[in-house]
Specification:
The complex is a heterodimer. Chain A starts with 7 loop residues before the first strand and ends in a 6-residue tail after the last helix. By secondary structure, chain A is of the alpha/beta class. In chain A, the strands form two sheets. Chain A has an eight-stranded mixed β-sheet with strand order 5-6-7-3-8-9-11-10, with helices on both faces. Chain A has twelve helices and eleven strands. Chain A is globular and about 70 Å long. Chain A has helices spanning 52-59, 82-88, 109-120, 125-138, 155-166, 185-202, 213-219, 237-242, 247-255, 297-301, 320-324, 332-335, and strands at residues 8-18, 25-36, 41-45, 67-72, 92-95, 173-177, 205-209, 222-227, 230-236, 307-310, 313-315. Chain A has two domains: 8-220, 3-Layer(aba) Sandwich (Rossmann fold), CATH 3.40.50.300; 245-341, no CATH class. Chain B is of the alpha/beta class. Chain B folds into two domains: 6-224, 3-Layer(aba) Sandwich (Rossmann fold), CATH 3.40.50.300; 230-314, no CATH class. Chain B has eleven helices and eleven strands. In chain B, the strands form two sheets. Chain B has a seven-stranded mixed β-sheet with strand order 6-7-8-3-9-10-11, with helices on both faces. In chain B, strands 2-1-4-5 form a four-stranded antiparallel β-sheet, covered by helices on one side. In chain B, strand 7 (177-181), helix 8 (189-206) and strand 8 form a beta-alpha-beta unit. Classes of the chains: A alpha/beta, B alpha/beta. At the A-B interface, helix 6, helix 7 and helix 9 of A face helix 8, helix 9, helix 10 and helix 11 of B.
Chain lengths: 341, 329
């Protein structure tokens, strides 16, 4: 049996930006290798400045890699000519955090959702209008919304319209960059339910970027933890949440404020010192060492190797074997209330 | 029992609309904060949390907002104070911090100048002593090398550092009450954990009471002993945090808790609250949450009072018979 071709492969990807000072560059993404299978949700977590959004944009083909490559269904989008790229990119769409900024205030919702169809298909106007109503229905908006303007919609409704627009050309993959961060928790629940339903109905793959661990734990099949341009840990969602290996992952999980009564919360929280360093001159060796309580001389000298510790669970830390295995700090509090599955 | 530090009772806030009409955005709000107590004020956007916080310090623009009712604080009614008298309270007895530290700090003054300004407004101290107090305040909030940061401008600091500076300013005059309006919402969870810990340590050390305005029930669980849930300009529930998380008595509070993704199985359908927060100009007289409530009965069309015993108040006529799911199902 041959393995199905992955939807998306990222090989040793680097994205650099000039920083404006003395020819320095910001290594926003620095040597990332990943893949996303069809119909899968890969969650990416990390602090602001870790390079999550830049990685997401490169995965969607919106940014040209400085080094390495992105293969979408086996094709490198940056190697395509203009015409072929326009055809190819339909399958890879992106949804952003701010639902206001992504909709043209002078276009009706119907026009915004129809726009991709106007550009990319040869259908008649009546066919396209019909498709718009279908799309609105799919994302849970009544037909009347087609005639409304963005300012007449709530944040949640606008985000639904953006999702309708993103799925208009039958994509295979959606990169969702903090898509529920601006929404109240009840509306956020509705939109997450919509993403889960659309994935079932359309077989979409998602790259879900969020700083909210609860959101990622809920929606992701696998989770990549990113720190200063590098993936430090990657594994099945349940494994990462219950048995994190990397000290950074442990710290992130244990700093999540959990809405549980005191008796059910774990008391051994890890509070990290300081903030994420500048990506212009990242620390030598392991990048997390300046904030890590396990750091030793070796961490400044050698980059930790990327190794597999459990099935499909990868991690880069010199101390994983001696210190971290089997220590389930952080997520234990949820283990108390969520059944094993 | 001791008199509470803050005793808000029958607070109403009206916003003037074009054409002379008024909309009541806060309706008959009553709650207390005891000395040294940490109280959370939660609810979705538009429920009136921030407006309530601002009204306590007379920070609402008088040409738009009309405030009636009692804001009892240390024996005085703040609602009756003149603008001049209010200046002595603001920053001295009650301080406030906001979500976005960059817009709360003045970009053209150094960090040190902004702290000493507050100190010298409220205390007759020499510039030298003000500087020493400011440096101590910076050290208290965990800023490394305060003497160097003293001369920095806000743009030279990270978001987390700016929020630390805001807290240093707010606590520099040792207020009795600190109102914190979404102070960690714009920060990463790692920095949020640092700031919440620091805020709790400092308020405990100085006996400062905390009114923590947030939409995040996780932060409330960590930072507060009591939580007040607001919906559409009213208090709908007021009780100890662990009681509310374990066994909420108002369907709205229960709905908020159940829609948190962390508390459901991965990829399962998250329970959400149907419908939307009503427009305040067109409210029916009955329970304001009834149109979205799965437990609503004809009786809910009547105006609802806060009921229950003093340790767990709830604005729902069915509170005694309903057993609502909380964070622990």
């Amino acid at each position: 049996m041959t393995r199905p071709e992955p939807l998306l492969e990222v090989e040793d990807l680097e994205v650099r930006f000039p920083s404006g000072h003395r020819g320095e560059t910001v290594k926003a993404v620095d040597g990332v290798t990943l893949s996303v299978a069809a119909g899968e949700t890969l969650g990416i977590i990390g602090e602001s400045g870790s390079g999550k959004s830049t990685l997401g944009r490169a995965m969607a083909g919106f940014l040209r890699p400085t080094h390495g490559r992105v293969l979408q269904l086996g094709v490198d989008p940056s190697a395509l000519g203009r015409h072929d790229f326009a055809q190819h990119r339909r399958a890879f769409q992106i949804v952003f955090q701010d639902p206001n900024a992504a909709l043209d205030p002078r276009m009706t919702i119907g026009q915004s959702v129809r726009e991709p169809l106007d550009i990319a298909t040869n259908e008649t106007r009546a066919q396209r209008d019909h498709r718009v109503l279908d799309l609105l229905d799919r994302v849970g908006l009544d037909a009347e919304f087609a005639l409304r303007y963005p300012h007449e919609l709530s944040g949640g409704q606008k985000q639904r319209a953006n999702i309708a627009r993103a799925i208009a050309l039958d994509p295979k993959l959606l990169v969702c960059d903090e898509v529920v961060a601006a929404l109240d928790v009840s509306i956020q629940a509705d939109i997450l339910n919509l993403f889960v339903r659309l994935q079932d109905e359309l077989g979409l793959g998602y790259v879900f970027i969020s700083h909210d661990l609860g959101v990622i734990a809920h929606i992701a099949d696998r989770i990549a933890v990113m720190y200063l341009g590098k993936i430090v840990e990657l594994g099945p969602a349940d494994d990462i949440m219950r048995r994190p290996l990397h000290p950074y992952t442990k710290a992130l999980l244990s700093s999540e404020p959990v809405p549980l009564p005191k008796a059910l919360r774990t008391e051994n929280r890890i509070v990290l010192n300081g903030e994420i360093p500048s990506p212009i001159s990242p620390p030598s060796g392991c990048r997390f060492r300046t904030r890590c309580w396990l750091a030793a001389d070796r961490c400044a000298e050698e980059q930790p190797a990327w190794e597999q510790y459990a099935p499909n669970h990868w991690n880069a830390c010199h101390f994983t074997d001696s210190q971290s295995r089997g220590d389930a700090s952080g997520p234990a509090q949820f283990a108390a209330i969520l059944p094993e599955h | 029992m001791d008199r509470p530090l803050l005793d808000v009772s029958g607070l109403n806030i009206f916003f003037k609309q074009p054409g002379g009409r008024e909309t009541r955005v806060i309706a008959d709000l009553s709650f207390t904060v005891a000395h040294g107590e940490s109280v959370g004020l939660v609810g979705e956007s538009g429920c009136g949390k921030t407006v309530t916080g601002l009204s306590l310090l007379s920070l609402l623009p008088p040409e738009i907002a009309r405030v009636t009712g009692q804001i009892g604080f240390e024996g005085a009614n703040l609602a009756l104070l003149s603008a001049r008298q209010m200046q002595d309270v603001r920053g001295r007895s009650i301080a406030m911090i906001f979500q976005e530290p960059m817009s709360a700090l003045d970009p053209v003054f150094t960090v040190g100048e902004q702290i000493t300004e507050t100190i010298r407004t409220h205390f007759r101290v020499s510039p030298k002593e003000a500087r020493e107090r400011a440096l101590a305040a910076l050290e208290d909030v965990g800023i490394a090398l305060p003497a160097r940061r003293y001369d920095d401008y806000p743009h030279q600091l990270s978001g987390g550092m700016r929020q630390r500076v805001m807290i240093a300013i707010a606590l520099s005059c040792e207020p009795k009450l600190l109102i914190a309006d979404e102070p960690t919402t714009a920060l990463d969870v790692t920095v949020q954990a640092q700031i919440v810990d620091m805020l709790l340590n400092l308020t405990e050390k100085h006996g400062t009471a905390l009114l923590f305005i947030t939409h995040d029930l996780g932060v409330v669980a960590q930072a507060c002993s009591r939580v007040i849930t607001m919906y559409a300009g009213q208090v709908v529930e007021d009780a100890a945090v662990d009681d509310v998380l374990g066994r909420p008595q108002h369907p709205y509070t229960s709905g908020l808790l159940r829609s948190i993704p962390r508390l459901s199985m991965p990829k399962s359908v998250l329970p959400s609250i149907p419908g939307r927060v009503p427009a305040l100009a067109e409210l029916a007289p009955g329970c304001r949450f009834a149109p979205r409530c799965t437990y609503a009965l004809p009786a809910c069309a009547e105006a609802q009072a806060l009921r229950g015993d003093a340790s767990h108040l709830v604005r729902c006529c069915r509170y005694a018979e309903l057993s609502l799911p909380g964070a622990v199902a």
